Amino acid sequence: RRMFPTFQVKIFGMDPMADYMLLMDFVPVDDKRYRQVTPRGARYAFHSSSWLVAGKADPATPGRVHYHPDSPAKGAQWMKQIVSFDKLKLTNNLLDDNGHIILNSMHRYQPRFHVVYVDPRKDSEKYAEENFKTFVFEETRFTAVTAYQNHRITQLKIASNPFAKGFRDCDPED
Amino acid sequence: RRMFPTFQVKIFGMDPMADYMLLMDFVPVDDKRYRQVTPRGARYAFHSSSWLVAGKADPATPGRVHYHPDSPAKGAQWMKQIVSFDKLKLTNNLLDDNGHIILNSMHRYQPRFHVVYVDPRKDSEKYAEENFKTFVFEETRFTAVTAYQNHRITQLKIASNPFAKGFRDCDPED
DNA sequence: CCCTTTTCACCTAGGTGGTAAGAT
DNA sequence: ATCTTACCACCTAGGTGAAAAGGG
């Protein structure tokens, strides 16, 4: 399914006339598997508020990459508004053949954002290193799950995503 | 609404590595306005099978152009399968601001297909003439209408377009 | 009478969380 | 007990012809 919340980024400093590819990938934060705790007597798992280390991580998943579907595009195009990776989809299916990003559930990940300058020179491979920049925002780290583990995330999604309107019981402006 | 049947074209002879823009426009076939005849006593206008000249054409509409949404793309990409202009939309609304192709209803049009080579040279404007090719297929001429005037076209559409499944009463393979 | 416009039920296509059943 | 899977009603978004209403 789509990642939520969506990764969005505002870009500065590109050459407006040059072509760029924008992409994302995900790297494990640690080598651990996590689990939830339901406090004794609590009615819902949602009431738990912390993650416990549950052991060593599962074998790493294939390190796939997601190209922003507007790639390639001119710097001017990328910079003129916030770039949103809302088409990016996550799956836990190791056999996935839709090109989605494969993650292990109950593991922690760090999204990474990459910018590739499309070098028009014939020997552009030589400059691959300098034409490639990676940006990491640590505040975007998350635990992958197959079902929401936190009521406030569920409510945020219901309030902000038009496809979840069916579950709203109050004004989304609230 | 979308044009039906869709204009589709198979392309050969491009430079696989070069970029091309593909586009269409529509030119009037003549300076006439047409009308249908319903034979005396016929139940439906659909029973008529010919067009009568009904006078001089209405003032020409703005000559808009439709770029294939995949433009620009490499020659290899365009040539590897049939190119379909199924997103192209027609309207009779002179004030349209959706960028649709504006046509006069009950007038005859000739679709035209244009290929533009994206010249990477700095002074590419100089070569505009030679980088531009137009193809006309006379068998694609049609009369623009606001409602189908021919039962067989209606049936063809119902049989072939998934959005019209609600009107099917037999197997589309027939 | 002929054509155009508007509205509608009915589709395709696909993104939601809920829920019940399944798995470990 | 905890997590995963499959399915579902309910949405968004938009492409259909039919039919009714409108216009000249």
Which features characterize this protein?
12 strands; mainly beta; 174 residues; globular; Immunoglobulin-like; DNA-binding; six-stranded antiparallel beta sheet; homodimer; 2 helices
How would you describe this structure to a colleague?
Two copies of one chain form a homodimer. With 174 residues, chain A is mainly beta. Chain A has a domain at 22-64 and 90-165: Sandwich (Immunoglobulin-like), CATH 2.60.40. The first copy, chain A, contains two helices and twelve strands. In chain A, the strands form four sheets. In chain A, strands 2, 5, 6, 10, 11 and 12 form a six-stranded antiparallel β-sheet that branches. The chains hardly touch. Chain A binds a DNA duplex (24 and 24 nucleotides) through helix 2. Chains A, B: Pfam families: T-box (PF00907). Chains A, B: This is TBX1 factor. Chains A, B: It comes from Ceuthmochares aereus. Chains A, B: InterPro entries: p53-like_TF_DNA-bd_sf, T-box_DNA-bd, T-box_sf, TF_T-box, TF_T-box_CS. Chains A, B: It is found in: Nucleus.
